[in-house]
Amino acid sequence: MDEQQLSREDILSMARLAGLHLPASYEDELVEAYDHVRRLVALLPQPRLRGDEPAHVFDPVAFDPTTG
After folding, report:
1. Most buried residue among 11, 32, 63, 66 by CB atoms closer than 10 A?
2. pLDDT of 26-43, one tens digit each?
3. How wide is the angle at C-alpha 43 spanned by C-alphas 53 and 33, nearest 5°?
4. Cα 47 from chain centre
């Protein structure tokens, strides 16, 4: 992970901006969980261009000997 570490206040600010208003007793748990969630999100597949999938660009007509 080459991202810079976010401060506690940054994480809590993001949560508030997302509409998550936690009691103070849960803030430590959110801050602790944030790094784990960030690492899991980084493992999700990234969107690819349509041309990256051979099935999307395969042209069967190109292999038809009758079309020449």
Report:
1. 11
2. 999 999 999 999 999 889
3. 155
4. 9
User: What pLDDT, on the 0 to 100 scale, is given for residue 19?
Assistant: 95
Angle, CA 4 vertex, CA 49 and CA 41 arms, to 5°? 45
Q: Could you read off the pLDDT of 39-61 as tens digits, one per residue?
A: 998 898 888 777 777 777 778 88
Work out the number of other CB atoms within 10 angstroms of the CB of residue 27: 14
Tokens representing 34 are: 């944030």
**CA dihedral (33, 36, 42, 45) positive or negative:** negative
Cα→Cα distances 12→7, 16, 40, 45, 54, Å: 9, 6, 19, 27, 43
Q: Is 45 helix (H, G, I), strand (E, B) or coil?
A: coil
